[in-house]
Amino acid sequence: MRMRDTFIKPMHPEGRKFVAIFAVISLILFLIWDPLGWIGVGLTVWCYYFFRDPERVTPTRPGLVISPADGVVSLIEPAIPPAELGMPAEPLTRVSVFMSVFNCHVNRSPVEGELVTMAYRPGKFLNASLDKASEDNERNALRIRLADGREIAVVQIAGLVARRIMWWKKDGDFLHRGERFGLIRFGSRLDVYLPHGVEPLVRIGQTMCAGETVLADLGLRDE
User: Less Cβ crowding at N or C end of the chain, within 10 Å?
Assistant: First the structure.
């Protein structure tokens, strides 16, 4: 890997207009007062890195559940999946990954399977690290069916700063593990609801890398 590639990452197309806006504002600030302009430059660089979309090397072993987001594990607890997904109203182990404004915000599928249901629900914009954010905040929920019939729920949750959840898939699509499926702007959270009997292999406070960090093992193996 070249040294340049360490610092210069691909940017998701969604970020181009925001970087352009920040750059124009920086030019205006330079006309007003140089120190303000340099602050604008710093914010423009931050905006570019917020929308970075680096390539990831996803583990290929069957049965692994991979983190759908960059960030830190903030909660691990039993919870009922969002009602709009139509899953049984029974508690499943929920692993929450909190993304700060400095994390990459491109979201990736944690497993390989059919996207049975995708359901968006408007809501509030509380701090995404809070437990009640799962119930009260704006969210977009995915119900993914595995090859063996088990299901996993993945929920994009808007945060205190985030004001737009985006997704690029629809009901019936097939998702590959590590495949990009959405993005949340400016600070947010991803919840993963594991099937019954599947325990997480991560702990609260652990740093996660979307598309790479193993979150759980479904126990599947090649024959």
Answer: C
Cα separation, 196 vs 152, in Å, equals: 10
Angle between helices 34-50 and 16-32 (to 10 degrees): 170
The mean pLDDT value of the chain amounts to 86
CATH number assigned to the domain covering 64-217: 2.70.70
Q: Hey, which residues are catalytic here?
A: 188
Banded pLDDT at 222 (limits 50, 70, 90): very low
Q: Rounded distance, CA 44 to CA 143, Å?
A: 36
Residue 49's closest CA among 74, 24, 18, 28?
18
C-alpha 154/C-alpha 141 separation (Å) is 6
Predicted confidence (pLDDT) at residue 212 exceeds the cutoff of 70: yes
For 51-96, write each residue's pLDDT tens digit: 778 889 999 999 999 999 999 999 999 999 999 999 999 999 999 9
CA distance 204 to 52: 25
Residue-range domain boundaries for the chain: 3-50, 64-217
Whole-structure pTM value? 0.83
Q: Tell me which amino acid residue 114 is.
A: E
